[in-house]
Amino acid sequence: MKLTKPNFPPPADGAERKAIAPVICYPPDALKQPDLNGLSKLREDAVKVAEVTAAPRDAACIDVPAGAFVRVVSVDGPQVGDLNMWNKHDLTERFYSGKTRALHGTHLSTGDRMWSSFPNMRPMATIVADTLDWYGFDAFGGSVHDVIGTRCDPYTGRLLSGDDYHYCCHSNLTRALASHCDLPLHEAEMLVHDVLNVFMCTGFTRDTGQYFMKASPVRPGDYLEFYAEIDLIVGLSACPGGDCSSEHSSDAAACYPLLMEVYDPGEEARAAHVQPGRSRYDRTHGTG
Ligand SMILES: [Zn+2]
Q1: What is the value of pTM for the model shown?
Q2: 37-55, pLDDT tens digit by residue?
Q3: Residue 30 falls inside a structural domain
Q4: How far is ligand 1, taken at its centre, from the CA of residue 249, in Å?
Q5: Where's the DUF1989 domain (predicted)?
Q6: Distances (CA, A) of 187 to 61, 107, 235
Q7: pLDDT score for 250
Q8: Is residue 281 within 8 Å of 83, Cβ to Cβ?
Q9: Is 8 a domain residue?
Q10: 190-217 burial, b if ≥16 CB within 10 A, otherwise e?
Q11: Which domain holds residue 180?
């Protein structure tokens, strides 16, 4: 945080320096745009083939083949979800929330991609539908589906409160991945990563730049849907924070399940999907 009373006085041209207009770091027009019309046509013929429910304060994983759709649905009550994504055939390729944020902004919606970690850096999924897209940004600068938070975890809980709480999203995702892939718990833990905060309403305070959350506007029936660009395992934790209106990392909040549904447009359509290739950077890092 910045000091309320700075130790150093501003230079003579301080106001001038502050007045310089910002430029967008990564202008999105350099990115290849997804064919949303084509995808929505494809979606019309897709049929539901699988579903899994993340119970309150727990997580679940589901396989989504390349060329299929996965929908995260709010059921029963307002609830936020912490979402992880892995390449089904190489769990070290996983969702890269920080780079996705740099490319698409702090909060995602339709048309944005979920980018994977280095050295792959390719779209793992494309967001194709978002029933909360009407929310935009509110008067506090808040919005939904952020890639600015990390995931609630027992280590931060321990640091701040001194207690051990086992049903944070980090632990929930660890248990779910371990059981889905039959991995030892601590091996699975190393593969859990920063999330897409589905339905969570967050932002940074304008005056102090602090990360804030507020009650999610999500209601039962709302959903966020993705098109799988590669074969995926998707993990989803029903955050112990519930709608994240007050606190997380405890059993205090009302908590509801979240549903994940897989929609398949058919084997032929999936076979016709061209999977994005891994980054073509040569990885010599200046040694060549
Ligand atoms: Zn959480």
Answers
A1: 0.95
A2: 999 999 999 999 999 999 9
A3: no
A4: 7
A5: 55-233
A6: 16, 30, 16
A7: 66
A8: no
A9: no
A10: ebbbbbbbbbbbbbeeeeeeeeebbebb
A11: 52-272
